[in-house]
Fold these 2 entries.
Entry 1:
Amino acid sequence: MHLNFGIREKLLAPQLLGVSVIIAIILFYWQPSQLYKAKQDFIESQTNLIKTLTPSIIQNILANDLSELHRVFENSLLIHKNEWRFIQLNNPDNKKLYPIFSRKPEPSDTLIKIKLTIEEENEIFGYVLLYTDWKKARNKELEDIRLLEIFSILLFIVIAIFSFILQTKWIYNPILKLKDLTSQLSQGQYQTKLPVITSDEVGLLTNSIEKMRIKIQSTLDKLTNKEKMTRAILETAPDAIITMNTKGIITSFNPGAENIFKYSADEIIGQNVNKLMPHDMAIHHDKYISHFKNGGSATIGKNRELNGLRKDGSIFPIEITINANHIEGELLFTGVLRDITERRKIEKIKNEFVSTVSHELRTPLTAIKGSLDIVTNSLNIELNVQASTMLDVANRNVERLLTLINDILDVAKLESGEINFTNEKINIISFIKDIIEINQQYAEKHHTRFKCTNCYEDIFVIADKTRLAQVMCNLLSNAAKYSPKDIPVEIFTSINNGMLRVNIKDYGKGIPKEFHDKLFDKFTQSDSSDTREVGGTGLGLNISKMIMDKLGGNIGYSTIEGKETTFYIELPVFKEDN
Amino acid sequence: MSSLFLIPVQAENKHTYTIGVVPQFEIRHIRRIWNPIIKEIEKNTGYKIKLIGSPTIPDFENEFNAGKFDFAYMNPYHLLLAQDSQGYIPLVRDHDKKLYGILVVRQDSGINSIKDLHGKKIGFPAPNALGASLLIRANLVNDYNIKFKPIYVKTHSSVYLNVVVNQTAAGGGVQKTLNQQRINIKGALKVLHRTPEVAPHPLAAHPRVPVEVRDKIKNTFLLLGKNEIGRALLAKIPIKKVGEANVTDYSPLKKFNLEKFHVK
């Protein structure tokens, strides 16, 4: 029930109700019941009075002395003239013995009729009928009751008033004061201290609110400082930090961004972020956003390299990370990006250098290898053991060097974008079977084998077959290298969200935690001490990742240390209507 | 030993005589009536007179039968008894009214003759009350030959009330007490029958009292009846008109054969 009353009225209400109930009880229950009791007492006392006459009534009836009997009644009427209005005695045959001539009085509110049988030792001598008036006794009783009533009601009213005054003093006034003080808080004035006036619950409440006020104030200070710091970072950061809403409208644009894109914040805020992208990217951008809103998050939190569009229309490479946040209930994207034009230039120079050096190294190395092969295999020269061992070492190291240079050249080509990809439709099951066949010998060399456990039929992807094979060969050879003896490496496929996943699972000792983050970096092997044991350049996974990125797919893994490792690649499933 | 006191004593030329009064009223009342009269007698005769009270009528009867009193004021039937036992001699009596009993019934009772009372209850004050009981009962039995059930109700008032409330069909009383009842009681009743009249209460003397003493006392009473103050004193006895009493005055009473109705 909602009462539109103040706390003081609400405190008063039960007291008023209580006093009303008490008054009602006194008036409608206690008073009538007291009066009823008094009436019963009166009747009892009157009956007892008649009973005191019983012996002389019986005596005179037995003596037939009606004269004395009449005298007894007349005397009694005289004695009780205030109450007794009429008394009658009938004999056991109900014949009237007294009085002879007087009549019964008219009935009235206060007239009480009492009947009493005059008997002794079970013998009935007659019946007395008394009309007695209890007006006087009732008035006396009423007077007493009224006095008590007035006293009680006054007492209750005084108690109610007194308790109301105390409630006002102890509860209402402190709450009122607290209300005034807290209303200042609600207006944002957190500096005003709340004095604790009482030590009761209101005091505790005040104390709690005071603690809250202090906390709010300190949080507010911290927030202000944090905001200042954030602003300082935003303003001084060389990177562009741009926020936009789900419609692609730019909501903030820091000085770093101004510097990179050559737009001032004022002119770009409120514009669509497409303005900062070259046309071929801009046309896809809206799709990315709606993809994200529908649950996809492929681009969120990842470092990507894209192109930006300056105000003057020039296109430049950028590295960008996008994060999504809900701020005040609104989904906002924050992009942190930097101009990587310079970095690209340096990388290009580096790649050209690596490419050139590798080519220059590979040519003589190929010649050396050819020579070594001839010496080892084609010339029928008897070599002593030492020379033969030395040739083996030279052969192995030349091969290793060639592999390394090939890998480095691949990396350089991939990074510089020199490799052209020729995409075609690939039936993945036959593709996997071919790859397994090619690599089965390698597996046997490592005392294991490849086993296709669960591969979907008739699934097609679009990819460069040679490059995809390079990735698969790399993953299979890795698995074979790390697989324990005689336990096959399992290859199986799965489809999730329109992406085909090819899994390669070995039951080796897994990948230590410390390598998880850098597994796809250049020159990484899970344990460098293993290098000699298992071989490899440490560039395979890096190359695989770059190829998968170029193919528009993913590469990843899951591992349980000491138990198993599963590497996978993902590519969109090809559908005829795509 | 009591007989010693019964012998008249003469001391300092003054004889002391005793007088007994039938206790129809309580003794204090009797003393208030008789003391002024005794004073007059002592003044006139020079004798000393001593009033002896009897607690009840049977005591009084026993006492006069034993000759305890020199003089006694008694009812007519008592005189008959006293004559027989001790030879008491009546001296004076009231000559105003004779004594008779009345039988009352309710006005609306429908009883019109004594015969109607046959087999009914009749109230009387006491068995031996002369006018209200003995005379009536004797009269009804001797002269009307009816049977009835006597109810003794102690007082005359009670007799009348019992009739009024139909506890008894009729009641025995005397005219004087009926007249004293409240008007509504009296009005509710009617007198059905009066007994034959007899001479009222006499003052009698024991035969041992000398004749001159008897005469002196008798004369004193007659003297009192001759003046206003004296008459007022005697009226309280009650003797309204004092006169001599003779044995013959009481002989008609003998016809009632009251001894048959007297309850010892």
Entry 2:
Amino acid sequence: MDERSNVSPNMIKMWRVYRTVKEMCMDRGYEMLKEDTDISLDEFAARFAKEDGEPDRGRMHFSCQPTEAMLVKYTDSPTPKNPNPVPQIGTIWIEFNSDDAVGLKQLRDYMQHLVNGSFYSGIMVVQKPMTGMALRLLRGSASIEEGPKGGVEVFVEQDLLVNITKHELVPKHVLLSKEEKAQLLQRYRLKETQLPRIQVTDPVAKYLGLRRGQVVKIIRKSETAGRYASYRWAI
Amino acid sequence: MTPKSILKNSTVSTNEPSATSKPYTQRHRDVALQHASIIEEQKRVEKEVLDAIMTLMDFPTSPTADPMRPSPSDALFFQGLMVNFQPSDYDSLIEERNIADRCGYALCPRPKKKAPSKARKHFIETDKGVEIVDRRTLEVWCSDDCARRALYVKVQLSEEPAWMRRGGVNDKIELLVENAEDHHKALPLRLKQEAAPKPAKSEEEEDVASAWAARDDALADLALERGEKPGRLSKANKDLLRTHIQERVQTAPSVPPEPPTQLSGQSHMAIEGHIPRADRPKDEDEEDDGTDWDKHLPG
């Protein structure tokens, strides 16, 4: 605890948020070094502190490339009509908003930035929940032309203080590719509507950035069976 | 190779609706369609409100506009957009404009007022004495006049969501503008009423007035054409309302209800027509008497 005494509480908070965001990108399958995800507090403070000891959110932004494995996972299997499918994923841009209140203006600026930088998707981390109208714009943002293709996700700093997937009661969630999903449905002779569901607003689903129609495999410990796998259809 | 199922090949799927369930009637379908159209209308209105707020965030069009005398085009545009708004939407508009550092009133180009310090609470001198208020509430408007003008609009908005409204109700929002006489001439919404009593005007003004009136008529016609004004709902649920009223025909002459025949003395004990046995007096011919089981026994 000695090393923390000279760092402001806000700095420690932002450090934890920053680490969670990095871990989130790694768990989703973006290229990320292990050292990046466990940056020490001292190093973080040295990189992002302002003169007054408060975190400088404006400098914390970064972008990630998807790994090969992730690109494969997000690519449809080729069909005669579409022999060379394009992966449904791309570079992501993560920004930490420093404004006190975030409304339509900030969200539109952010979307504009994503489009200008030709990023596929984006994550905005805000200090306080956005206004209602901004949420409304966000809900429809996947379908509007002005936004980025992959949509925008917004997280509140408060929700990222701890990495929820590291909690012992949260089982492991693994995203299935289109191919694996097809195999699963064929193995159990199911239609996808017959699978149990998970909401895309579920905390873990948000963490993994699930999209509607994807299937996750949930592996949980079982006293009787050792490990038990179940599947959820994101809705 | 696909794994082979050990289950029997059954032809009947359990998911199919059984034949015994009631068939869907046309009426069910109409009800479902009616609700679906309401939801669709809701989505449309919500999108319109969102677009309106995005437009109004950058209002007014000229940076030198005066909130007391907004330009007629701005005022008309603002009034038109306000028709769909609920008071809560209006609050959102004010909030968004404040985040963009503008006065909450959409026709005012000035930035919002800055509180004297960054403290969270402030002391304010009012007629009733000193009040302690939040800093946020201080930084909403540029001046008290703008607050009055903005709230004048807000109180006219209907609490009922626009997709549930009947056509023709509350489709005119008045603005609080100074030197109203000039403005009313310029504002086409009031023009029709005022044109008749004051015919003696300069030619130029009359031309302008007639042009505005023609435009207003055209706009109204367009709205009609879109099916917006007159009773959107009534059109959609035409099939659900029965215009043909069927009289209930009486087949048999009415008969007074039968008086309770037996045990009439006990009618006050009846519970929904049934008289509990416990309080009933002993009857000779009662079949299942508690003690008659040995009567019929031989010997």
